[in-house]
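#lab-general

N.A. 3:47 PM
ok so I finally got the sequence cleaned up, no stray characters, all 198 residues accounted for. can someone with queue access submit it? mine expired

B.Y. 3:52 PM
send it over

N.A. 3:53 PM
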Amino acid sequence: MRSKIIAKATDLFLKLGFKSVTMDDIACEMCISKKTIYKYFCNKEVLIEESTAEVHKAVHQSIDTIVARNHNAIEENFEIRKMFKEMFKAGDTSPVYQLKKHYPEIYNTVMSREVNECNMVFKQNIEKGIQQELYRKELNIETYVSFYYTLIFSINGNTSSEKEAKKLELEALEYHTRAMATPKGVIELEKQLQHFNT
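B.Y. 4:20 PM
back already:
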């Protein structure tokens, strides 16, 4: 029952936002009493913490699956972007924005966890791109990792519309890739942008 509650709550939080969804809403959706939810979670904050941990796990499992497919570095980034687009089918409100606004402590925990994980993914992607001659050899990898995650997290934490956040994230990916790309990389980027928008 505990995992079913987390799954339903996560679904509602991502669709409608962390602030908007109440314990009553979750109970009603599941046709159970609110008391049943409180048996497993003493308050909504604990349920939000569990939900964000589940989302984090699912996201990073999907990223690992994409990385294991051995795409070239630029294609890999676009595949990850597509996965996010699918996973968070744009509701009106951005869940990350709501989290930052209404539950800042949970947001900070989520972000510090994400920074560590994303650092590693971005770093490996840049190293791979350099080996494949899609990114320039002389790049300062740490700096570019830091630039990119600052951009992405800033977009997510400060954009209230999920649709707008997704659009900006794609533009940030293009900006990030162009800044690193060799002429060969620019050709691959143009190819990916064309596929992504069709």
